[in-house]
Amino acid sequence: MKVIYYFFMLSVVFVVEGCGNWLDVQPTTEKDREDLIETEDGFKQMLYGTYINLVHPDLYGHQLTYGFLEGLARNYVWHPTSNYNYEDKTVRPTIDAIWNTMYNNVANVNSILKDIKSRKDLFINNEGDVLEAEALAMRAFMHFDLLRMFAPAYQDNEDRIAIPYVETYERVRYPHLPVKEIMEKVLKDLNEAEKILEASDDPILKEVICTYSGKNDFMANRQYRFNYWAVNALKARVYLYMGDVENANHYAMKVIEESPFTWVSETDVTSGDRIFMPELICGLNVPKLANYYETYFTSEKYSLSDGWGVYGLGVFEDANDFRYLYLLSNDRANNKVISSKYNQRVSSSGVMKKETVPLIRLGEMYLIAAECNIEDNPGESVRLLRELKSHRGYLSEDKGIVADASANQLLDYIKKEMRKETYAEGQMFFFWKRLKSSTTPGFNPWSSAATTPMKVEYYTFPLPEAELEYGNIPSNGELDL
Fold it and tell me: Whole-angstrom Cα distance, residue 436 to residue 454?
């Protein structure tokens, strides 16, 4: 079968141990699925399997965090395409693999959702509800990122035919839907997940972020799951992408003011917390991260600049910035600067500080709220930006943010901070796309002000050829950009 919706279930069976180590992956058959949905443990194994699939190298284990997307944002010396030629024979397989692997995992999530409502009696307490909510949130998360990759930016393109939103576990060719309808379905899943998690008393609502009761504790490690606050933070991201600043600000401020996440301290960072764990709203455990780091970040292509740090300091602006001081490594012997964010060799019995790739962090919520207030409450934007930078080591009284900043100045501040805050996390390409930016940073080892011209078509990936040939695309669908 050529179309992604025809995939068989590829769930996994594995052991959960410690604070996020997911090991012993074994593929199962459809018959195995029928056995799994007969038990509480079987459903949990299926959910854990979807998280493991998210850290596949084609997805958030590499390409959608510090890999392909980050190269497209011009954050490395390396750039994956020549003039954003996505049809190049060396590039197209990467894009097709992203599509296929993501929709394969959507099928896995839908396999859970197909039966979970009718099997809640298998679970003790509210664990069945939490499992259902996480599956809904994951489905929304994956479709949202697929939309950000394979459809044009939301504003002015709401009625353009985009991608399928797959909501059932069955062999059908799901129709490609308009951008607006995809976003409505994303929000529908997120709203339902939020409602269920709040009613089911997600442990993170009691400020229980990570517990250590050992093997098979389903409610442990909430930072590594689509928890209640992750759902709210994702809604802030989604609403901002839609241009709905009122709702985006509401959810960003809700996370800022009510969630248990706190700023990382310099002591934590110098002790080895490269991921800023107290601020991590949602992340993934990547057991092979050390190997990936050695493979990619010790090579020339994932370097930031020359080995003397001129470009790096230009980007991060202040040598006291924690993100510059502790998360970049100057390799002068090999004339390069690399991100050390994923060089997570420090282990701790208190907080997991290794094998972690962030999906959503607290700093992004500050930047979303700051952007939402540019026009109507610029003083609030200034306050939020200064607070963020005060927790990044900036010593000056105004933290480099002038009190009477204009709207354009405030947006420029936000652009710079977003790049610093989410470096090597795969968010900047989407940021430039949302703003329909005609330029992005252009690498020049001696100038952080260099830019690269961008065209609107550069921001949208082509659909796989098999999808164009066999997919359920309306005959009046406007797929050309």
Answer: 9
Distance, in Å, from the CA atom of 334 to the CA atom of 367, rounded to the nearest integer, reads 35
Distance CA 356, CA 223 (A): 10
DSSP class per residue in 446-477:
T-TT-EEE--GGGGSPPPPHHHHHHSB--TT-
261 neighbors 255 (Cβ within 8 angstroms): yes
Q: Which residues contact 225 (CB under 8 A, 6 or more apart)?
A: 51, 134, 282
d(CA 280, CA 445): 31
Q: pTM of the predicted model, to two decimals?
A: 0.92
Model confidence pLDDT, tens digit, residues 139-194:
999 999 999 999 999 999 999 999 999 999 988 899 999 999 999 999 999 999 99
Nearest to 13 by CA among 37, 40, 36, 38: 36
Element (H, E) at 399: none
Residue 166 contacts residue 103 (beta carbons within 8 Å): yes
265, two tokens: 């301290």
Q: Which one-letter amino acid corresponds to residue 208?
A: V
Residues 175, 262: Cα–Cα separation, whole Å: 43
Between CA 169 and CA 108 the distance in angstroms is 8
CB 189 within 8 A of CB 140: yes
Beta strands at 161-164 and 176-178: parallel, antiparallel or unpaired: antiparallel
User: How far, in Å, are 196, 233, 240, 283, 408 from residue 247 at the CA level?
Assistant: 20, 11, 8, 23, 22
Q: How far is CA 126 from CA 3, 17, 204, 341, in A?
A: 37, 21, 14, 36
Distance CA 83, CA 207 (A): 47
The pLDDT tens digits for 93-137 are 999 999 999 999 999 999 999 999 999 999 988 999 999 999 999
